[in-house]
Amino acid sequence: MTSKLKDKLATGIFYSIALIICAILASIIGYVLVQGVPHISWDFLTKPSESFSAGGGIGPQLFNSFYLLFLTLLISVPLALGAAIYLAEYAKNNWITKGVRLMVEVLSSLPSIVVGLFGFLVFVIYFGWSFSILSGALALTLFNLPILVRVMEESLKSVSASQREAGLALGLTRWETVCFVIVPTALPGIITGVILSAGRVFGEAAALIYTAGQNAPSLNFANFNIFSQESPWNIMRPAETLAVHIWKVNSEGVVPDAAAISSGTAAILIIGILLFNLIARIVGKYVYRWMTSS
C-alpha cells in the first residue's frame, strides 16, 4: 500500500467519523425540534404552568431562566475577568499560580450535581437563603467561573507582546496598558466565551434543582415590591427554570399533557442554546472586524 493510498484511507476514515458524529447530533436536535415545535405557541410561552390540569405554559420558567442567567453573568464575568487579568498579566510562575490554575482546572471538571449539592449545603442550609434565585445564581457562578477564567485568560494571552510593548513605550502604566490596549484587543474572544458560557448555563438543571428549587410561583410584573413572592424581581423567591421544568414534568408526570409540555420546553431550550452559539459567532466576528478596522 502506497503512502498516498494510506493518506487517502486515513482521511476518509476521519471524514467518516466526523460525519457520523454530526449525523448523531443532527438527529438528536432534529428529533427534539420535530417533537416540540408543534406544541409551541404564544400561550405556551406566556401562560403559567399547571400542576394537575392540561394546557399549562412555561411563562414563569422562561423568565426565571433568563433572570438567573443575567444574575449569574453579572456576578461571574467581573470575577472571571479580574482572575484572568491576574493570571495572564501579573501572576509569576510560582507555586501559588500553579495552585490557582490547578483549582480552576479541578472546578471546571466538577459534575454540575456536585456544584448543586455544595450550593445546597452552603447557600440553602448554612446561610439560610432557602431555595431562591440568589442561591441558584451563586451555584451557577461556581459552575461557570472556571470556564470563563480559562477562556478569558487564553484570549488575553493571545494578544501579541508587541502591543504590550507599544503601550508601555507610549508612557502608559502597566495597568493602563491592560485596560486600554490588551483587554480591548482580546474583546472578541472574551465576548464569544461569555456568550458560549451563557448557553451552557441556560441549559443547566442539576445545579439548580438543589438551589433554585422546583417551584415557579405566578409572577406579577406590575409588582415591584422586591420582598413579595409574586414579584419577578425578588431574588429570594424560588425559581424553576426550563431545564428543571423538563426534569420535573418527566419525573412526576402528573399533568395529562406532560409529554407535550416536555417536548415543547425541550424545543425552546434547544432553540435558545443554538441561538446563543449563533450569536457568539456573529458577535465575535463583528467585534473582531470592528477592532481590526479601527
TrEMBL record:
NCBIfam families for the chain: 3a0107s02c
Span of the signal peptide: none
Subcellular localization, as worded in the UniProt entry: Cell membrane
Gene3D superfamilies: MetI-like (1.10.3720.10)
Domain ABC transmembrane type-1: 62-280
GO CC annotation, single: plasma membrane
Protein name: Phosphate transport system permease protein PstA
Membrane topology, record value: Multi-pass membrane protein
Regions crossing the membrane: 12-34, 66-88, 100-127, 133-151, 172-196, 258-280
Species, as recorded: Brochothrix campestris FSL F6-1037
Family: Belongs to the binding-protein-dependent transport system permease family. CysTW subfamily.
PANTHER family per the UniProt record, alphabetical: ABC TRANSPORTER PERMEASE PROTEIN YQGI-RELATED (PTHR43470:SF4), PHOSPHATE TRANSPORT SYSTEM PERMEASE PROTEIN PSTA-RELATED (PTHR43470)
